[in-house]
């Protein structure tokens, strides 16, 4: 019953489609987007950054690891995981990983959306779902985080194979309720309307850790500079060069708690374009 209650509560927070959503209807349809070379680079730079040769076995490096969710075990595992990922908050050490992410935006995401100027998450959110009896992310839509209409969610697994218990579950359209696990081929990104489509995870009742990245991108014309995320520096900007047609990073955002950084007492640093 708890899940049904969470679902009903989340459904009330789904906004009606705005003009930007209607203009972006084609891009907001869920699709797999191939990006094997870039995903391979992201995997390699993240594994090196956190010192985990096998991301799918990452939980084995957590001291005293257990799948139990009771008696404070989950909280302790979360703390240990945060310590493991602390390197993400180190600007210099994280630079190769960020460079791989920016390349993915320039070469794959921006051309797929097609806007002349694109706002995108300054840093991808890194998700580590280790084997656990704990459900993880409850049903929600990303509109509750003040994302502007027209925003596109992107999700990419760095560990394969995926299983229904260790991936994201998403409905096909806002209000559809036909939740299905994301099971893209290795090296593919998933594009979907996370602002209005509900999504959640199930307990990872398997023997492997799922490591994935998620981020948001939106044509710059839809971003209000006075909005909470814009004022916080949440967005970096990629712009298309008129002569070459290629995208370049035009402005860097500011890494913060908005990017899922509970890994340090001082998680914010300014990025360089």
Structure description:
Helix 4 runs antiparallel to helix 6 (91-113). It contains seven helices and 13 strands. Strand 10 and strand 11 form a beta hairpin. The strands form three sheets. Strands 1, 2, 3, 4, 7, 9, 10 and 11 form an eight-stranded antiparallel β-sheet that branches. The longest helix has 23 residues, at 91-113. The chain has a single domain, classed as Jelly Rolls. It has 273 residues and is an alpha+beta fold. Residues 264-273 have low confidence and may be disordered.
Please specify the SSE layout and strand pairing.
Layout: H1 2-11, H2 19-23, H3 25-28, E1 31-34, H4 36-50, H5 73-84, H6 91-113, E2 117-121, E3 125-129, E4 152-157, E5 168-170, E6 180-181, E7 188-192, E8 199-201, E9 210-219, H7 228-231, E10 235-240, E11 247-251, E12 254-255, E13 269-270
Antiparallel strand pairs: 1-7, 2-9, 2-10, 3-9, 4-7, 4-9, 5-6, 5-8, 10-11, 12-13
Helix pairs in contact: 4-6
Quick synopsis:
With 273 residues, this protein is α+β, with helices and mostly antiparallel strands.
Return the domain count.
Answer: 1
How much strand content do the residues show?
Answer: 15-25%
Mean pLDDT: 90
Form type: globular
Annotation field: number of helices: 7
Uncertain segments are 264-273
Query: Could you spell the SSE succession in H and E letters?
Result: HHHEHHHEEEEEEEEHEEEE
CATH class: Mainly Beta
CATH fold category name: Jelly Rolls
Distance between the termini: 48 Å
In helices, the fraction of residues equals: 25-40%
- CATH architecture annotation name: Sandwich
Category from helices, strands and their pairing: alpha+beta
The Cα radius of gyration reads: 18 Å
Q: In this structure, how is the largest beta sheet organized?
A: 8 strands, antiparallel
DSSP strand tally: 13
